[in-house]
Amino acid sequence: MEIKDKVAVITGAASGIGRALGERFRAEGARGLVLADLNEDGVSEVAARLDATGLRCDVSDEAQIQALAAAAEAAYGPVDIFCSNAGVFFEGDEDQPDAEIDASWRINTLSHLYAARAVAPGMAARGTGYLLNTASAAGILLQVDSVAYTLSKHAALGLAEWLAVKYGPKGVGVSVLCPQGVRTGMTAGRDDSPAMVDGALEPEDVAEAVVQGMAEERFLIFPHDQVHDYMARKAADRDRWLRGMSRVRANLMDEA
Ligand SMILES: NC(=O)c1ccc[n+]([C@@H]2O[C@H](COP(=O)([O-])OP(=O)(O)OC[C@H]3O[C@@H](n4cnc5c(N)ncnc54)[C@H](O)[C@@H]3O)[C@@H](O)[C@H]2O)c1
Questions:
Q1: 210 lines ligand 1 (CB under 6 A)
Q2: Which residue of 24, 149, 150, 186 sits with most ligand 1 atoms within 8 Å of its CB, as the best mutation to test the pocket?
Q3: Ligand 1 atom 41: residue of nearest CA
Q4: Which domains does the chain have, with CATH numbers?
Q5: Beta bridge partners of 55
Q6: At CA 140, angle to CA 224 and CA 166, rounded to 5?
Q7: In which element (H, E) is residue 250 found?
Q8: I need a labelling partner for 98 at 20 to 30 A (CA). Which of 60, 170, 183, 204 fits?
Q9: What is the mean pLDDT of the chain?
Q10: Atom 40 in ligand 1: residue holding the nearest Cα
């Protein structure tokens, strides 16, 4: 799908990847842009700069996603593209507090389901639309320093596959964005994060990958090329891959 003349909603748009998507969608000629974030002041500032509508929305609350989709439709007409991008990261092993697991599940995973409930049936009825769900390379591979992130991003990937199987034949594109390290608010001050082992991209690089991936209607969008190889190695020999990841964790987390 091309972005030009489309109506797009982007969550997590006050910062990082979401903000870069907003800037890029505006440059591509989106007809209507609705930017949403928990950070109301931040998203209002970005929206004012981009001639977009900025709204406060907590994506963990289904009623707020329904209201967001309705507000977008009232302002610009039916939503063509919904980018479920807002996300959170909490570091921790299996003893991570349930509150962090729950928040990750709601914000990183259930929000994608809520968005699909809000807009996918309408898209299917019109025979056109696009769901762009930001997961992570951790959704394909693993986040060695976070159980909550690994769980929520793997589930986000499974949900996106499920949506693609149901809605693809009805004319609704589904892509799942799977970056490794990107320089954003989420990774600020965490240069030693496992996500950064192969170096970090800028949010604008990720937006470029999204525009290309959506133009080709590719399910998996990997802004970092090496993730293709990592995925192939994991699929080819899971036991070898797990041993390799144990070494990565031991080195990165000083457990060697
Ligand atoms: N930065 C990376 O290295 C990286 C790598 C892979 C995937 N991702 C994913 O990219 C997405 C965007 O993250 P980012 O890196 O741009 O981080 P970021 O922290 O710069 O931006 C995330 C935005 O989401 C918003 N947000 C958080 N909780 C929210 C909620 N409940 N409702 C609405 N908005 C909320 C924050 O206010 C923030 O503006 C996330 O899903 C993240 O998991 C990031």
A1: no
A2: 186
A3: 87
A4: 7-226 (3.40.50.720)
A5: 36
A6: 110
A7: helix 238-252
A8: 183
A9: 96
A10: 87
What DSSP assignment string belongs to 140-162? TS--TTBHHHHHHHHHHHHHHHH
What token pair was written down for 97? Answer: 């507090």
Annotation marks residue 149 as catalytic: yes
181 lines ligand 1 (CB under 6 A): yes
Which is the catalytic residue, given 76, 149, 167, 230? 149
In order of 100, 148, 201, the CA distances from 97 in angstroms are 5, 9, 30
Q: Express the helix, strand and coil content of the chain in percent, nearest 5 each.
A: 55, 15, 30
47-60 pLDDT tens trace: 999 999 999 999 99
Q: What is the pLDDT of residues 65-113, one digit of tens each?
A: 999 999 999 999 999 999 999 999 999 999 999 999 999 999 999 999 9
